[in-house]
Amino acid sequence: MAIKLADIRFHYSDRPEHTVLNIPSWSLSSGDQVLVHGPSGGGKSTLLGLLSGLLTPNDGSLTVLGQSLNSLNDRQRDQFRAAHIGYVFQQFNLMPYLNAIDNVLLATRFSVRKNTNTIKEEIKTLFQGLNIPENEWNRPIRHLSIGQQQRIAIARALINKPQILIADEPTSSLDQSNRDAFMQLLMPMVTKNQMTLLFVSHDQSLSNYFTNIQSLNDFNHIQGQE
Amino acid sequence: MLAKLALNSLIDRKGSVMLSLMAMTVSVFVLLGVEHIRHQTKENFSSSVSGVDLIVGARTGSLNLLLYSVFRIGNPTNNIRWDTYKDISNSEKVKWAIPISLGDSHKGYRVLGTTKSYFQHFSYGKKNPLAFSDGQEFDQVFDVVLGSEVAKKLGYTLGDRVALAHGIAKTSFSVHDDRPFTVVGILKATGTPVDQTLHVSLQGIEAIHIDWQHGVKVSKGKLTQSDLEQAELQPKSITAFMLGLNSKIATFQVQRTINKYTPEPVVAILPGVALSELWGMISILENTLLLVSALIFIAACLGVSAMLLASMRERRREIQLLRIIGAPPYILFLLIQLEALLITLLSFFLGAGLLAGSLAVLRDYLVSNYGLHIEINLLSDNSLYLVAALLAASTIVATIPSFSGYRKARTISY
User: Fold this and answer.
1) Nearest residue on chain A to B319, judged by CA atoms?
2) Which of B90, B92, B139, B263 has the smallest CB count inside 10 Å?
3) Which top CATH class is A31-57+72-219?
4) Which of B12, B410, B414 is most worth mutating to test chain A (most A CB atoms within 10 A of its CB)?
């Protein structure tokens, strides 16, 4: 099992009466590629926050890659996230003032591997695999197009060879052609590295890239609330 | 990597960072300047006279006597009679005596009338005797020995002729131009008021004042050589004199004897004691200046912290990203501290550079107007402590935004 949730309940501490998540049972097997969609404000971000370990559930057990996140302390959860989970967001995936290489390098800074030279080689290979032109490797991110930034975001998410990749609306700020290009780069990478992909989006047109499509409302049982 | 992040993040916000940096640079400039000049002044003053046991002059405050006899600051209140000098310096406890006669000047530099014993016994710094870079002591009545600064600034070399002026103003209407002096010696630089002094014999001082009364030339006629030879060039009075004693232990005893000298009211001072009296007075001012500049620095630190704190809002996404890629919250604390540190270090170097530049420009002005020799080299043990103190202060103040960053990082929820 890549991800296993049991009897998860969560509410934000400033609104204890408002339960955001109530998931009796939900899991993803290793190697699953699943598209989860749900309305905005439906608890998607909260779910991802729990999986990343930035949030902790009020109740229930949360197991990622066989490791119970409940039993880890803050520091351990940070390390676990750095080592095992990659992220791609809709925007602000990268430090705008660092260049592409430094951005990816930064992501390796908090995981265990240290040798900068090997990492730089890996980054170059990754960039080449993602068709990122070499003249853009050393330019500050903010001078690059959004499509290009999203490719570098993939590289950043993959550099630590995570077993799980979480993609949070990564294509929402891209136009049609860039979105297709993004998906056509991402999916083979995921398959090649045998990663578990949790792809969250409200964009129905992405459905043809996935066989496993779920709605958050199907497994998050919130009743009697707005 | 973290340093790179901090640096690039600062460059990215260069508008507000530049302003904070400038404020910080100015404050470092002030603080460093006050500290440096304070230190240098003290060193300067302390090294101006050494080996002199007593300074004797007309009865006046000990500070006043010290200031005009050694530092050529201010004016002597009264002269003392030559007989008094002879009488006291002939005492068996006295090893040597240097008479000094002040009151004339040359292009703003003071003229000191003295005897050859000045070159033998006067010393500065750590008992360094005076040395000639060129020529020798004065021998003739109209010989003059220049301090290094005088020679350099006015471009005099051996054999040049110099007309002295009455009074000490830079432009004088009563120039002793009928009796010019010949440069026979130039002293090596000492970093003391000696460098700004022209030394002539007491007889020379007397010679140029023949026919002068109350500071005004009374006869328009040119004096001939024979007039001079007929005139008795024995000085009748001098401004003050310095004494070296055979035994240091006798210093207080001799001082007491001189202070009780009946034929004329004179006073003897110990240069070291008078100097520390001077420090006592100056230290109040010094400490006030230091306090003010320290406060300015703290204000600049607070400015930097306010800037960093304000930036925290726009950096929410950065913090979130760092957290997502696994940065623990304390990294944010370190990052903000590092940014503050970078600003402080950079402004230290900028401020120090600015100060060194200003000193290089102002150096001549300080020397010629205040007799202050300020080294441009800012590096001393003290300045290292100062850097440490500055970094410590900025770190402490930067704890406020750093902690805010840490808290943001802790509470950020995906």
Assistant:
1) A95
2) B92
3) alpha beta
4) B414
